[in-house]
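testing teh design pipeline on a random one, pls ignore if ur not involved
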C-alpha cells in the first residue's frame, strides 16, 4: 500500500473456505485490533461474506513501514472452529519528504590565494524517503557568475571547493545559496557564508605627494623637504607600515650640471606581516647655493720688484682669489 493512500480505501482479502455444510460452514471474520485498519464484511450475491480491510488513518512510511495483522475466520458450528491467517502490509514510499539541510547557514573561513581545488566547506542534506526519492543532489542556487568562477559544489558529496585564487583586497566575503534536490524533484535551500582572510601578499606602496627641490643649503634643521604617502592594501598587522631611511649614511651627495649638487636619499617602507614585505623609493633633492662663503686669495701676501721708469701698463704681478659658492655668488671681481 502506498503511503499516500486515502483513509477509507478498501482492500479485499482472501475468503476462507469451510468443508462443512449448513450452519457449520457459515463464516464470520475478526481482525486483531489495530488503530490504522478495520475490517468490514461485504456480502456477495451468493450470500457469502467478503472480508475487506479498510484504511482508517493516513500512513507514513517514515514512521512505520509495515504492519502485521491477524485475520481470524470463525464458523457457525457448535463448538465453533476457527482458522487464522497473517496479513502483512508493506507501506511503499512516496516522495513526500523534501531534503533537509543540517544547517540553515553554513559558515567558513578561507585564506586568500587558496590553491584551486581546496576544500572550503561541506554541506549535508538528508531525505527521509527511500530509494531515488531519498537520494540528494547538490547545486548552486541563483548565484552571480563571479561565485561560479571562484567556487564549485560537488553534486553528490556537497563539498564546496575553490576554483580560482581568492583575493581579500578585491572581496573579503561571499554569500550565496545552495540547493538540495531529491530524485523526485523536491528541493530545499541553505545559505553559505565564506569569509576570506588576509595573507600578507601586498608590499607597501610609496607615493611622493610633494618634493621641495631645490632646497637652500642654509635651510634650518627640521625643514620639511618631501611629503610621502605610504599605503598597504593588506589588513591588520599585514597593512601596518613603518618607514625608515636606508643605510648608515642616508644622504649621499652627487654633483650635477651647473655647479650645483644633489642629495640622494632612499626611503624604505616595511609592513608588520610575517614575513614582512617592503618597498623603497629614492628621492633626489637638489641643493641651491647661498652666498655664505667669502672670496679667499691664494696667497696671504704678495710681493714683487718693479723697475723704475717702467712703462705704464706693464704687468707688475697677478693675484687670484677663489669663492666656493656657485654661479654669481662665486664670481670674483677685484
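output:
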Amino acid at each position: 500500500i502506498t503511503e499516500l493512500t486515502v483513509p477509507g480505501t478498501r482492500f479485499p482479502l482472501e475468503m476462507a473456505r469451510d468443508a462443512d455444510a449448513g450452519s457449520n460452514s457459515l463464516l464470520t471474520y475478526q481482525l486483531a485490533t489495530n488503530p490504522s485498519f478495520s475490517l468490514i464484511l461485504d456480502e456477495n450475491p451468493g450470500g457469502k461474506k467478503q472480508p475487506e480491510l479498510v484504511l482508517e488513518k493516513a500512513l507514513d512510511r517514515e514512521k512505520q513501514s509495515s504492519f502485521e495483522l491477524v485475520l481470524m475466520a470463525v464458523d457457525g458450528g457448535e463448538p465453533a472452529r476457527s482458522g487464522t491467517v497473517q496479513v502483512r502490509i508493506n507501506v511503499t514510499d512516496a516522495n513526500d519528504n523534501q531534503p533537509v539541510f543540517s544547517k540553515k547557514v553554513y559558515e567558513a573561513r578561507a585564506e586568500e590565494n587558496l590553491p584551486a581545488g581546496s576544500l572550503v566547506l561541506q554541506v549535508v542534506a538528508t531525505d527521509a524517503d527511500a530509494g531515488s526519492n531519498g537520494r540528494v543532489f547538490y547545486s548552486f542556487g541563483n548565484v552571480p557568475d563571479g561565485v561560479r568562477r571562484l567556487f564549485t559544489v560537488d553534486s553528490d558529496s556537497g563539498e564546496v571547493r575553490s576554483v580560482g585564487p581568492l583575493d581579500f583586497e578585491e572581496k573579503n566575503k561571499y554569500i550565496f545559496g545552495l540547493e538540495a534536490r531529491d530524485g523526485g524533484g523536491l528541493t530545499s535551500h541553505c545559505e553559505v557564508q565564506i569569509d576570506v582572510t588576509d595573507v600578507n601578499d601586498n608590499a607597501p606602496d610609496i607615493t611622493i605627494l610633494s618634493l621641495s627641490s631645490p632646497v637652500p643649503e642654509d635651510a634650518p634643521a627640521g625643514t620639511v623637504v618631501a611629503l610621502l604617502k605610504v599605503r598597504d592594501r593588506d589588513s591588520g598587522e599585514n597593512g601596518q607600515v613603518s618607514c625608515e631611511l636606508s643605510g648608515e649614511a642616508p644622504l649621499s651627495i652627487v654633483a650635477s650640471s651647473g655647479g650645483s649638487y644633489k642629495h640622494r636619499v632612499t626611503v624604505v617602507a616595511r609592513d608588520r606581516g610575517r614575513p614582512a614585505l617592503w618597498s623603497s623609493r629614492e628621492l633626489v633633492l637638489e641643493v641651491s647655493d647661498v652666498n655664505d662663503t667669502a672670496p679667499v686669495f691664494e696667497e696671504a701676501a704678495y710681493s714683487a720688484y718693479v723697475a723704475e721708469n717702467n712703462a705704464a701698463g706693464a704687468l707688475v704681478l697677478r693675484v687670484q682669489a677663489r669663492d666656493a659658492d656657485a654661479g654669481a655668488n662665486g664670481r670674483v671681481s677685484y
